[in-house]
Design brief:
This protein is an all-beta fold. The chain is 0% helix and 66% strand. It has no helices and nine strands. A hairpin with a 5-residue loop joins strand 7 and strand 8.
């Protein structure tokens, strides 16, 4: 779930992992590039920062301490019905991650 919060967003994301366990990630952050607390990251991150690139594009950077763990580029389609998220970084096992997810508004 994602909702507006001040000059940013409040996000709660529930995942079902491959082994059937559930993970919940939560944060509230502004689009100012400053670090905010992040909980529940599968990648071991404990901080998140957000930047607005343009009207339809944002960038989310997850960090563990001062080290960048992953960067998510999020682009909303012109009609507002889909969002494409490109994730690049390193997972908790140190393996490279390069994923693209497409989400449809329901």
């Amino acid at each position: 779930m994602q909702e507006a919060a001040g000059q940013g967003e409040k996000t709660t994301t529930d995942f079902v992992n491959v082994d059937g366990t559930r993970t919940t990630t939560q944060y509230t952050a502004n689009f100012d590039g400053k670090d905010s607390p992040l909980s529940g990251s599968q990648f071991g991150a404990d901080m998140v920062s957000l930047k607005r690139i343009d009207a339809r594009t944002t960038e989310r950077t997850d960090k563990k301490g001062d080290k960048v763990v992953q960067v998510l580029a999020r682009v909303v389609s012109q009609d507002g019905k889909t969002m494409t998220v490109t994730t690049k970084g390193t997972n908790a096992q140190g393996q490279a991650v390069n994923n693209v997810g497409v989400f449809e508004k329901q």
